Amino acid sequence: MTIYAAGAILWREEKGKLLVALIHRSRHDDWSFPKGKVDPGETFPQTAVREILEETGLKVKLGVRLPTAEYKVPTGEKKEVHYWAARVSDKAISESTFKPSEEVAKVDWVTPEKAHQLLTYKFDNAVLDALLELHKKKQLRTFPIIVLRHAKATPRSDWHEGKVVDDGNRPLLPEGKKQAKEIVPLLRAFGPKRVITSPWVRCFNTVQPYANKYRLPVIERSQLSELGNKKGPRRTKNVIKDVLDEGKSAIVCSHRPALPTILETLSDSANKELSRWIQEGANLKPAEMLVVHLSVDKHQVVSAERWTNYPVELG
To answer: What would the CATH number be for the domain defined by 142-307?
Structure first.
């Protein structure tokens, strides 16, 4: 059986100098990055932000995915820890609720050189090296564009309004409404600030729970609908280019037929390998998302990850 956990390397810059956060656990007398075991019903990103808040008192949004650490615990079981980079703002530090406890005695901000000296476990040093490589390439500070396919909708064959079929008003199934609510914590882990969607009902209602919870306006773009993309793929591309030019975190909710256009536009800012992987997202399932991380300075794709609202299988 594998033990699953998730966490992050918290980082910030002070007077141009990179600092990372380490936690000291008195019970184990070790230094490591904040992380913890996955609770039933959670996805890895959810676990990461929850554990960081519990162990450091800091509210964060996840950035670039870092290498996964795999090792065996003293009982002989395999452990798999999923890591992200997470920038910590001055505001987050000022609002920290951290108090020393039996679990975590202290949180120290140190230079990478000092971190290498303090870290107790070799696998943590490898994850830190990956973060430092991103920093060297100026790819550590990023913003996410989350391409989301709408949740499960009423089948076309079952949807008729009188004698006229109005596909734009085809609603979510009860299962789809449930999916729309369940993806809220997963979306929150990446902290998108803008909600952009096809105006068709099944897309709008997919992002509405997230927008309502965080009091964000829902921006409707007809070019993201199936019909809008079919009539003018170039206009759909222009919407995505505008989102990229904004340089702000965002959700873009659309339909399966429009996904190739959206993802092709995003892949133009990626290297060959990432470009191919992004375009494979055209087969996203209902309520599944592709999180594309772009560098703040050049708006180039640094990494991409694919998530569903289904929790980690712990059995």
So the answer is: 3.40.50.1240
